[in-house]
Amino acid sequence: MTMKSEEDYSEVVEWRRDLHVHPELLYDVHRTASFVATKLEEFGCDEIATGIGRTGVVGVINGQRRTSGKVIGLRADMDALPMEEMTGLPWASRTQGRMHACGHDGHTAMLLGAARELAGTRRFDGTAAVIFQPAEEGGAGAKAMIDDGLISRFGIDEVYAMHTEPGLPVGHFATASGPIGASADGFRIRIEGKGAHGASPHASIDPLVAGANIVLAPQTIVSRNIDPMKCAVVTVGALNGGKAGNVIPQFAELTGTTRTFDPSLRGLIETRVITIAEKVAEAYEAKASIRYRRMYPPTVNHVRETLFAINVATALVGEAHVDGELTPLMGSEDFAFMLEEAPGNIMLIGNGETASVHDPRYDFNDAAIPYGVAYFRSLIEDGMPL
Question: Quick one: which of 345, 343, 347, 293 has its CA closest to 138?
Fold first, then answer.
């Protein structure tokens, strides 16, 4: 797989590495958004909208004809992660405590590469909307863009995205119809007891003992409340309380996450987490205050659009290099919000045998760029043929 020229490929690699050097977090992606908007202007996009969902950018590219009246959206995420890079590469992050550890620099560069080619040839009948989204990493940037009128303002009929996948060979693609990513909800449980000297536990209401039992009890939600043919996860990731070994504290706090592919289970899990926390704390004469937050819905690919995406990838790299029956992943993806508003698909693109995403040693594999650019371009040209 090659791009139009080695010069084009080298330029997209240069963009990608520049973005990697300058990672930005959540909605604070002003440099990245400005970089994107400047490139879209250079390409000759028919419209460039900034500030969508606070710092999102949308470029509109009209085809040679627009008799179909169809609009296809292509989405890339722009934000990085709050972690220290350990790659030692020449293009490593220059900002302490921030790095592109999830490939969003690659996603953005590939969509820019596709936008340049689409604006240059316009070999399609309809309109392409290239969407550059902030705050995918925990900020629900997709929802912010939707709430700002993304789908209705640009008349988007279908929407597609792509995500890097370490372990999948370069030049390979993978996806599936239906649920492909889990919902992600979070909870915080604050337990109030009664502090005392560690030598006088009888004078206390120990919030740590109550908390330890609350850590264990929600594990029964999956084993005893949910159909074993369905998937769910309840994880307590932190239990904090106290600072000294000889003091029973007055407060303790737990935080955790829940995941499922089935939207109908989210309410059940929420109810059980709250009930169990309150009743277990009560059994130890403590009091539990629970904050439960629904964050991301399950990522559910649409059947027709997924078949189309598979066919596009297959035409590029061959059937042997496309897995159309990917096992769903328990990770979450806020592209789910866009898939709730418009039919579409998210596709995984191979990054080769590299460190995993969210690993301080991760780097996007530039060898994947031609495949990603061609895939994004083909979604438009094959989805709205002349």
Answer: 293
Answer yes or no: do 213 and 146 share one domain.
no
47 neighbors 134 (Cβ within 8 angstroms) = no
Give the Cα separation of 71 and 179 in Å (integer): 24
At 149 the pLDDT is 97
**Domain identity same for 230 and 351:** no
Task: Tell me: pLDDT of 49 over 70.
Answer: yes
Residue 1 lies in a domain: no
100, 20 Cβ separation under 8 angstroms: yes
Which residues have a Cβ under 8 Å from the Cβ of 333 and sit 6 or more positions away?
136, 163, 181, 296, 299, 346
Two tokens at 181? 């990513």
Q: What separation, in Å, do the N-terminal and C-terminal C-alpha atoms of the chain show?
A: 24
CA dihedral 86→88→93→95, nearest 10 degrees, is 70
pLDDT band at 1 (very low <50, low <70, confident <90, very high): low
Inform me whether the pLDDT recorded for 337 exceeds 70: yes
Tell me the whole-structure pTM to 2 decimals.
0.93
pLDDT category, 197, cuts 50, 70, 90?
Answer: very high
Of 296, 329, 347, at which residue does a domain stop?
296
| Residue 174 lies inside a defined structural domain of this protein | yes
Q: What one-character-per-residue DSSP string does 326-343 give?
A: PPPBSS--THHHHHHHS-
CATH (domain of 126): 3.40.630.10
- Show the domain range for 356: 6-181+298-383
- Find, among 130, 93, 129, the residue nearest to 109 by Cα: 130
Rounded Cα distance between 235 and 15, Å, is: 38
Q: Using CB atoms within 10 A of its CB, is residue 41 exposed (0-12), middle (13-18) or buried (19+)?
A: exposed
Domain edge (last residue) among 281, 296, 311: 296
216-226 mean pLDDT: 96
